Amino acid sequence: MKNIKVLGSGCKNCETTANLIKIAAEQAGVEINLEKVTDMAEIMAYGIMSTPGVVVDEKVVHAGGLPGPDQIREWITG
User: Fold this and answer.
1) Could you confirm whether 44 is annotated as catalytic?
2) Domain formed by 2-77, architecture
3) Residue of 3, 9, 10, 11 with catalytic role
4) What are the sequence ranges of the domains in the chain?
């Protein structure tokens, strides 16, 4: 199971990113643990300066703007 965190203040792009990840995991039949992190101190600890940020198994894989569908699939299946 992959542990995925969406880092952000809860903005529209953050919510959309979390939903896209959830949908991609369901389509791929992959179990994930999806966590939304809104604590700014924790977000800054990952070095994220623009949100949404995405962390997969404690590795930062994305920061700022909406990720593309191919990127998300790679995180889920990679």
Assistant:
1) no
2) 3-Layer(aba) Sandwich (3.40)
3) 11
4) 2-77
